[in-house]
Amino acid sequence: MRFLSRMSTAEKIAYVANFDSNTISVIDTNTNKVSATINSNVRPTVLATTPDHKFIYAVNSCSDNVSVIDTHSNLVISTIDVGKNPMGIAITPNGKNVYVANFNSNTVSVIDTCLNKVTFTIPVGSGPEGIAIRPDGRFVYVANYDHNNISVIDTATNTISTNLPAGFGPAGLAVTPDNNFLFVTNTNTDNIYIINIQTNTLANIIPVNKHPRGIAITPDGSTAYVTNYLSNNLTVIDISNFEIIHTIPMGNGPLKAAITPDGKSVYVTSINSDYIYVVDTAVNTVCVKISVGHNPYGVAIM
Question: At the top level of its lineage, which domain of life is listed (predicted)?
Answer without folding.
Answer: Bacteria
